[in-house]
Design a protein that fits this description.
four-stranded parallel beta sheet, 14 helices, six-stranded mixed beta sheet, alpha/beta, binds ligand F0G, Rossmann fold
Length: 430
């Protein structure tokens, strides 16, 4: 590496190296996606991440892992104490997935400041944007990235603009984005069209692109894996499962694992399992073809966060699956909703896209691809309140003329003790 390159980035396709000191999202030579270059010749130990209390290194579950992040100066860092998310080991969820009790954990990224894992990538992207003097930051989004960008840009005092597929994101996410003050542009079309349009905009105008094609975004998302490994005493689990949409997170997970291994923090790589919804499963189909034949599709799933048919990071995600001996699965909308109902009723809760992980593990265990004694961590990417419309529909709507098996229907009564006694007799004390 040239000694003069600051914030070095490298093209994933042709290997060209550049300085990341300007907004940059694709290789000027071949158009490939760029990765931040991290020094993997350093040796790190568990105590490398110790930091004094109430400093950035201890309050942020992202900036704690600075040795493995781009070297952005302190004065530019925009943090909302993101990360620091718990892993819950819940036996009912494990049993549902077909995994032995005590061996399946869910790492809940819904505990982040805006309720999704996107805050981890956004603290790095917006800090980078601030360091390069961006005047407007923009993203295309199925809702979570937009809420996160709107919040972090407002925190930084930089105007933001988001392109969303009109009518296809949840009201909760739209509400957050409006509340945090981003300029919302509703695009007729799906996420893929919105991202394509935005990439044309940022190529022509002085607008900073914050999607995960920006090499700094996945860097923050790597810390989901680093924090998980640290909580597990740097003993890698057998399997890490995550949902797949635009596939930036799958790419980030693979990069985190390869780097953690190279610097000596872990001695083996867990298998990364990406789970897609059947209605938006181009990566699953690619995997099924032995990564021989890839074709985008028109997406259609209830899990609006991952309703994506032409994922931008497909090649980088393929590398993750290949490097870790991983798998790609897909589940139907009913399967992911059923898994979500189990996660919700465990008192944990998540949004529909996140539940693909538990549904996917259940399927892979049933198919004999994953053993029931495997140690598994599923990443729940978004909070239960991210999509309340679908919760109400799930519990109130009939399927084929009957309530769903796990439906929790409210009971409507007159305000009398007689009516209340009947409820107690029929539904509570029986
Ligand atoms: N889970 C949730 C809750 C998401 O919001 C997303 C992506 C994913 C999983 C998939 O992650 O795209 O890295 O494969 N949401 C993006 C957005 C597309 O705009 O909020 P991925």
């Amino acid at each position: 590496m040239s000694a003069t390159l600051q914030l070095p980035v490298q093209c994933a396709s042709c290997g060209e190296r550049l300085a990341g000191t300007t907004p940059i999202t694709e290789c000027p030579r071949c158009g490939g996606l760029l990765d931040a270059v991290i020094d993997t010749t350093q040796r790190l130990t568990p105590s490398s991440f110790d930091a004094p209390r109430y400093t950035l290194g201890s309050t942020s579950g992202v900036w704690r892992y600075r040795q493995l992040l781009p070297a952005i100066a302190d004065e530019h860092i925009v943090s909302r104490r993101e990360g620091n998310t718990p892993i819950y080991w819940h036996d009912r969820i494990a049993t549902y997935a077909g995994i032995e009790p005590g061996r399946l954990g869910v790492k809940h990224e819904g505990h982040n400041p805006t309720g999704s894992f996107k805050d981890r990538g956004m603290t790095v992207a917006v800090s980078h944007a601030k360091s390069v003097g961006a005047s407007v930051i923009a993203c295309a989004s199925t809702g979570n990235t937009s809420a996160s960008l709107a919040s972090y840009a407002a925190t930084a005092g930089i105007p933001s603009m988001v392109l969303i597929p009109d009518g296809k994101i949840s009201m909760s996410k739209l509400s957050q984005t409006l509340a945090f003050g981003a300029k919302v542009v509703q695009v007729a079309g799906d996420f893929d069209a919105a991202l394509q349009l935005l990439r044309e905009v940022t190529a022509e105008f002085d607008v900073y692109l914050a999607n995960s094609v920006n090499p700094f975004r996945p860097e923050g998302q790597k810390t989901i894996v680093l924090e998980m490994l640290e909580e597990l005493g740097w003993q890698a689990p057998d399997v890490i499962a995550l949902p797949g949409g635009n596939l930036g997170n799958t790419a980030a997970f693979g990069k985190a694992l390869v780097e953690a291994y190279a610097v000596g923090l872990i001695d083996r790589l867990p298998r990364v399992v990406t789970v897609q919804a059947e209605g938006a499963s181009p990566f699953y189909r690619y995997f099924q073809s032995g990564f021989d034949h890839y074709e985008p599709m028109t997406p259609n799933t209830i899990a609006s966060a991952i309703n994506i048919g032409a994922p931008a990071s497909v090649d980088r995600a393929r590398r993750t699956i290949q490097n870790t001996g991983g798998l790609v699965a897909c589940v139907t909308d009913e399967e992911l909703l059923d898994a979500k109902a189990v996660i919700d009723a465990a008192g944990i809760g998540c949004e529909p896209a996140s539940a693909t992980t538990v549904a996917g593990i259940r399927k892979l265990v049933a198919d004999g691809e994953i053993s029931s004694d495997a140690r598994v961590v599923c990443v729940l990417t978004g909070n239960v309140l991210k999509d309340t419309d679908n919760i109400v529909k799930y519990h109130l709507d009939d399927v084929d003329g009957a309530p769903r098996e796990r439906a929790n229907r409210p009971i409507r009564i007159e305000a009398t003790m007689d009516a209340m006694k009947k409820v107690l007799d029929d539904a509570i004390l029986s």
